Amino acid sequence: MIREAAAxxxxxxxxxxxxxxxxxxxxxxxxxxxxxxxxLSDPGHHVIVVERDGMLVSxxxxxxxxxxxRDARPYALVENVVTHRDYRNRGLATACLARAREIxxxxxxxxxxxxxxxxxAATLGFYRxxxxxxxxxxxxxxxx
Length: 144
Fold this sequence. Notes:
Blueprint: E1 2-4, H1 10-17, H2 29-41, E2 45-52, E3 55-65, E4 75-83, H3 92-106, E5 112-114, H4 121-129
Parallel strand pairs: 4-5
Antiparallel strand pairs: 1-2, 2-3, 3-4
């Protein structure tokens, strides 16, 4: 089942993020709760999840950003694409990305942007196969 995350999905989502790049769970419970509440209350913030066997096994985040250019059409950002190791290569992340695309299209977005730190050919090929162009733009990141 693919759906948007609900308030009681936080712990399951954090456990899934351990299959992304996280080394542990956040320690500051108040900060975590405040961030989760803010995400849930933001109508432009979509945490897409796939549930299998009673647990969250794949997810991505799609954020729709209002914009003043491109005839005031918004754009979307996709982040935190992850699938539990035991559930990979089953099309679950592809389903999450397809749902993000549906959300972005319904919101009138003119583009979706996705950044990845992955360098392996399989992951980059996965994103290309999902419709993302890795050659059109150059990304710059400033760590804070």
